[in-house]
Amino acid sequence: VIVHDVNELTEKLFPIVEAMQKHFSAGLGTYYSDSIFFLSVAMHRIMPKEITQIIQVDLDLKYKANIRDLFDEFDNFPEGAVIGIAREMQPVYRHTFWQYRRENPQTKVGDPPPDGLPGFNSGVLLLNLEAMRQSKLYNELLEPAMVQKLTEKYHFKGHLGDQDFFTMVGMEHPELFHVLDCTWNRQLCTWWRDHGYSDVFDQYFQCEGEVKIYHGNCNTPIPED
User: Fold this and answer.
1) 76-105: per-residue pLDDT in tens?
2) Phi and psi at residue 87, to the nearest 5°
3) Which tens digits make up the pLDDT trace of 3-54?
4) CA 91, 112, 38, 183: dihedral to nearest 10 degrees?
């Protein structure tokens, strides 16, 4: 077990993610403390080189399967993919991309699966740090000018940190991501069902198969065994 000091990590992170914080943070400005919500985005830059793969998870999870099986998913990454992540299971990005969707009525951006691009949920992340280090494309996308370019293209303003960054990048470069099955991040939050999207909510929320990890996001109770 290696313990990392949060303040030290934040100090290293801040210069890398400062530019994206104003686009993907809930606050009005760019806050130093917000940097930790972008840890996964630049993990390959701050972890020792000998660490080549990391699973990063939220705390509000309940495991129904062996985490070793999740680690095996690294073997399923297609060539060029650097991150494993499951789809977002609410129409949050249907909402966030509303202007882009209005201007591009044929787009799949924000549409539900299986054919749409609903965005990602960062509650369970597989970070192939070595692939992230080697990927010229991924590292270019971290540059402030590229972040600005994409946020302008998609009229994007989010508040969910790394999840927003991965979602926006995934709209433009889906080849960077290995999409995990929903059973590895079975989100339980239903907030958007009661906030204007009840008609389409179930298209995003459905998840077939035996759940391996429950995610009690937005303080949703997790089922008892």
Assistant:
1) 999 999 999 999 999 999 999 999 999 999
2) -70, 150
3) 889 899 999 999 999 989 889 987 755 565 689 899 999 999 999 999 999 9
4) 110
Strand partners, 215: 61, 187
Contacts of 173 (CB under 8 A, 6+ apart): 137, 141
| Residue found under tokens 């699966």 | 113
Distances in whole angstroms, Cα of residue 169 to Cα of each of 129, 151, 156, 214: 17, 10, 11, 25
Tokens 């840890």: give the residue: 39
- pTM here is 0.95
Whether residue 175 contacts residue 141, with contact meaning beta carbons closer than 8 Å, is answered with no
Angstrom distance (rounded) from CA 58 to CA 122? 8
Euclidean distance between CA atoms 174 and 118, whole angstroms: 12
Residues 6+ apart with CB under 8 A from 178: 73, 76, 77, 78, 81, 83, 84, 85, 126
- Bond prior to 113 in cis (omega within 30° of 0): no
Which amino acid belongs to residue 80? G
From the list 203, 196, 218, the residue with the least C-alpha distance to 98 is: 196
CB crowding 147-165: b at 16 or more within 10 Å, else e: beebbeebebebebbbbbb
Q: How far apart are CA 225 and CA 213, in angstroms?
A: 13
Would you state the structure tokens that stand for residue 47, as one six-digit string?
Answer: 């972890």
Residue ranges per structural domain of the chain: 6-215
Beta bridge partners of 53: 128
